[in-house]
Amino acid sequence: MLHFYRLNDKSFEYCFNIETTGQLSAQELEILKWLLTETFEPQKFSNKNFLKASNPEYSQQIIELGPRLNFETAYSSNAVSICKNCGLLKVTRLERSRRHLVKYGPECKDIDACRQEFIGKNHDRMTECVYDNPLTSFETGITASGVYEIKLLEEGSSALKEINTSLGLGFDAWDIDFYCNLFVNYFKRNPTSVECYQLSQANSEHSRHWFFKGRMVIDGMVQDKTLMQIIKSTLDANPSNSIIAFKDNSGAIEGYDIETIYPSSCSAGSPFVKQRRKYHIIFTAETHNFPSGVAPFPGAETGTGGRIRDVQATGRGGLVVAGTAGYATGNLNIEGYDIPGQDKSFIYPGNLASPLKIMIEQSNGASDYGNKFGEPLIQGFTRTYGAKMPDGDRREWIKPIMFTGGVGQLDSM
Fold first, then answer.
1. 3-state class of 257 per DSSP?
2. How much is the pLDDT for 385?
3. What pLDDT was estimated at residue 158?
4. How far apart are CA 291 and CA 128, in angstroms?
5. What local confidence, expressed as pLDDT, does residue 204 receive?
6. How far apart (Å, rounded) are the C-alpha atoms in residues 322 and 371?
7. Helices within 218-326 (DSSP H only)
8. d(CA 290, CA 351)
9. Is residue 3 packed enough to be buried (19+ CB in 10 Å), middle (13-18) or exposed (0-12)?
10. Strand partners, 41
11. Which segments of the chain have a pLDDT < 70?
12. CA separation (Å) from 84 to 63, 87, 91, 94, 200?
């Protein structure tokens, strides 16, 4: 494995960890260095690290943080693609880690505790880990468990209940009875662990909307419409200029005749020519709240990316135009900047990032993904709120809101 370093400032540098299928030639190494070097500061790039701790056991430490090794990041996928386009076919993975020179002051009485505090504030524990030593391989040494059968025929529903708990499948009592009957009496065989997991995902509320499509009973009276039917009734009553609604994961309204450029042939390479075409207008939006609370940057990235995908998958294919975003969190508690009304005694869940980190990183994540697709973020909002009511109740966006919306266009032909 190759290592290159790029100094960012006196206490921070990037380390590029590069896996190859063989030794690179001198020319290939020069091309790789050219790709990784900061254009205007070549003196800050080297195959040797810049940061060194003068007293690693006490007052100074090098802490290296990087992506988990068991999956390739989007950064690596892009970097490897660029390398291949430059003729560096031997590069198979390229991950970037961050090396921090941490200096502990006299207020730090416990080095290990201070180290863990720094790590907790500067890495995403869901997607990143600490590199105690320079990487020699991306191999984790972890072997995935194999597919196995769930002993329904032999043990009955208790076997499915056990895997439901151990894998967190989210089956309720009705699900367990239904799947037990399906496999035991209809298929007459045991399901596999993969089948159970797939059923959990495909038949989840997220995918099937059991709640919104289920029967509603209010004060003992079964309603004649489901929540989904009530929501759709507005379209049925007044479709107006709607072209697409409640399908394709986005909506489209009647557009306009415009003059644009279009390939003169769709079956071969051809010049662009001016054409008159009708483009409809696409609107779509979604939230990605809890993931953005657990891992703000990738959570917001995924929210924006999923919404961009919905625009592009509308009809036979839509075109991205612009995006919007909104973020709502609890009290930011910015150090050295007191905001009236913030209660610093509030305790936040340990499985979520702090409101300040969420606000900063989900904004960065949403913009980052849009930038990679060429979609500008043209407007948005931010809100923070956290207060104790006169009756003692606490009102706050503890689970954040990460809203992402987009505008696109759809060729009517």
1. strand
2. 94
3. 94
4. 15
5. 80
6. 10
7. 227-237, 289-294, 296-312
8. 10
9. middle
10. none
11. 55-58
12. 31, 5, 8, 12, 39
User: What burial class does residue 4 get, using C-beta atoms within 10 Å of its C-beta: 0-12 exposed, 13-18 middle, 19+ buried?
Assistant: buried
Which tens digits make up the pLDDT trace of 224-279? 999 999 999 999 899 999 999 988 888 999 999 999 998 998 888 999 999 999 99
Q: Tell me the CA end-to-end span of the chain in Å, nearest whole number.
A: 51
Are the CB atoms for 90 and 21 separated by under 8 Å?
yes
Query: Which amino acid type is present at position 12?
Result: F
Amino acid at 183: F
What is the model's pLDDT at position 53? 79
Residues ≥6 apart with Cβ < 8 Å to 130: 63, 64, 65, 119, 123
CA gap 353, 211 in Å, rounded = 29
**Nearest-angstrom CA–CA distance, 16 and 34:** 13
| Three-state DSSP class for residue 85 | helix
Element (H, E) at 211: helix 210-213
* Strands 217-218 and 242-247, sheet pairing: unpaired
Amino acid of residue 257 = D
Q: Within 274-379, where are the H helices?
A: 289-294, 296-312, 355-372
- On whether the CB atoms of residues 3 and 16 are closer than 8 A, the answer is yes
Helix (H) or strand (E) holding 261: strand 250-263
Q: Give percent helix, percent strand, percent coil of the chain, each to the nearest 5.
A: 35, 30, 35
- The torsion defined by the Cα of 191, 192, 193 and 198, in degrees rounded to 10, comes to -70
Report pLDDT for 58.
61
Residue 39 in tokens: 């254009």
Q: Are 305 and 323 in contact (CB under 8 A)?
A: no
Distance CA 135, CA 361 (A): 27
Instruction: Kindly state the DSSP code that residue 133 receives in the 8-state scheme.
Output: S
DSSP 217: E
Write down the pLDDT at residue 56.
59
The DSSP line for 200-217 is HHHTSHHHH-HHHHSPPE
User: Strand 250-263 to strand 272-287: parallel, antiparallel, or no bridges (unpaired)?
Assistant: antiparallel
